[in-house]
Amino acid sequence: MSKPLHDTLKRVTDRIMDRSRDSRAAYLAKVEAAKAKGPGRAHLTCGNLAHAFAASPEVDKPDLASARVPNVGIVTAYNDMLSAHQPYEHYPQLIRETARSFGGTAQVAGGVPAMCDGVTQGQDGMDISLFSRDLIAMATGVALSHDVFDSTVFLGVCDKIVPGLVIGAATFGHLPAVFLPAGPMPSGQGNEEKTKVRQDYAKGLVGREALLASEMASYHSAGTCTFYGTANSNQMLMEFMGLHMPGTSFINPGTELRDAVTRAAVRQALSITAKGNDFRPVADILDAKAFVNGMVGLNATGGSTNLLIHLVAMAKAAGLIVTLEDFEDISEVTPLLARAYPNGLADVNMFHAAGGLGVVVAELLSEGMLHEDAKSVVGDSMEAYTTEPRLDANGEAEWVKGAAGSLDDKIVRAISNPFQSQGGLKKLTGSLGTAVMKVSAVAPERHVIEAPVRIFQDQDAVKQAFKQNEFTSDTIVVVRFQGPKANGMPELHSLTPVLGILQERGLKVALVTDGRMSGASGKVPAAIHVCPEALDGGPIAKLRDGDIVRVDARTGVLDIVDPAVLEREPVTADLSDQHVGMGRELFATFRASVSSVETGATQF
Predict the structure, then answer these.
(1) Which of 484, 550, 485, 542 has the alpha carbon at shortest distance from 512?
(2) Tens digit of each residue's pLDDT (9 = 90 or more) over 2-23
């Protein structure tokens, strides 16, 4: 028997609804106006319609012309360079065939860009990665602007792609939206071994050939990378927010079950249109309850800090205002129930086999730690997300009761015996500004560090200082002018091996930056997303080498110890060389108009 909703979750939900009263009302009014017009095809001219299905198969044209049956719009992030999205190559054909078999039609509405942070990590292209999220949302808007669809399915997995697609889906809130995952690649070389080789390379103990062989053994197949970074945190989020079919996030690509759950998702997308009896526009799903459930899931599984930015932006697209205070309050009461790399040794395939998201959802529901009555694409109860798909006798997906509890308590725990009593995300506030830290993988004795700072303007300079053996005592490494306005807020993940080595040498080190860290970063204390950013003249721009800073994840403090530092004029930087090359010059308007990281670092 589930307990009543936890008081903190109720308080945070009410707070979001209260502060969002006007913006949510305006959003819902827009959605209602679009719903009142009815399905778009009924209002298009004959010329409009003819253009819309001129290239469609002859078997579909009568249905498309009459507008009697639902038409599903496919928005796809397919490309075959990005391993997580390569499986989507054949999805449109499967979706069209499935829609036809259930009396509907489907068309590819449009494609959206999908870049790989794994390819651009530490490279110039990373400077446009965060901006690609809003570009994806805009491309989704272009795809759906033809107004010929009754429902939508979204094909996307990775870091900025899913948040961008959610923003786009929310903008067309009068349409149902079902998200179709592609699944993780099979397990390759273990994450711990991969990390060791990276550190050995940074120490000069192995060469590039050994490093490349290790990386290729880790990233070896189609599917999502198997560590629990931003991409797989996205998949968790889509289940907790009710946009996936239950239990489908971590089924490997190219399997019978993966195809079967995709067919089931298409059938569901057809069944929840305004033409049927169970109309579920995505605006009804993306409410305050969904976002609170998403924040709980993020904390309970030790998910990526990138989602702090993305959830704020996604909520804004649905007329809701979510703040860091909401994340912090939820983190304080949400137990950590999962350990997947970088928060543990297991990968997502092991996590899934140990009971996965179904067990985590069931445990949270048992203690009132989720809105049980949140709407989803499959119903009006989160209990559905404690089930898991299996193949029936006909090779189709059927949903059965999931594991009764964890099958490996080193990976998934009961809520009565969590890995930590609190979630993995901590808000830091003080004279240096506000920041966040992911503490689920950081050893407790490293949660507090007070030390002199070393100032850098890019991660390459940090690595160069490391090679020259300049770090010989406790140090807080400050990398500034990395915020969204400065250079698009690139991830600084390539610093992880270097800082990890310094920790192994017995030093207390931490990172402070107005940039981001990868969802795969973990063991080094990192105060990230510092706001105000350096380009805005924030206190981080007033620091000099040797100033003492205190990073305290226990009490949530980020302080410059000497108040006199705040009396200095902030330094400025010439960033012009970071604004050209690899397409960065095309995003000048994005840098000029992006909002602060606290409000989602968004254009909207």
Answers:
(1) 550
(2) 789 999 999 999 999 999 999 9
